[in-house]
Amino acid sequence: MAADPGTYLRLKAAIDATIDRIDEKSMAAKALSDAYAVFRGEALLVAKAESVQPEFDRLFPAPKSVSRPTTRGGYDPIAAASDANEGLALLARLSGWLDGFERQLKFDAVTSIYARARSNQDDGNGAPIAANRQRW
Q1: How confident is the model over 40-65, as pLDDT tens digits?
Q2: How far apart are CA 109 and CA 131, in angstroms?
Q3: I need a surface site. Which of 9, 36, 97, 130 has the fewest CB within 10 A?
Q4: 52 with 98: CB under 8 angstroms?
């Protein structure tokens, strides 16, 4: 993996904290949209570092513009709730995508440790198991 593993963890934690801290989701459509735009930009850097930008672009569309609710009749609660739900869904998807990198790091580490341990095992006579394997 080309990007710093801590980047995945920090970015995912920030996204999850944002999702968890929004109390009245329908009133936070603009905040959720803005948060998605910021986090998407950061995650795009990870995607480029990992050479998975085409996948990223398919999964995470550019953020749409959401207007802030006003008290002058310009507030549509149905549209705001829809925008908020869309923002939450995109943030949750982004968090899950980053979680995939974390899981991949763990899987790669465990696989590497297992392979190293397996190659260092002996056959009980002091000879490495790998040396006793026949090549097919």
Answers
A1: 999 999 899 889 999 999 999 998 87
A2: 24
A3: 130
A4: no
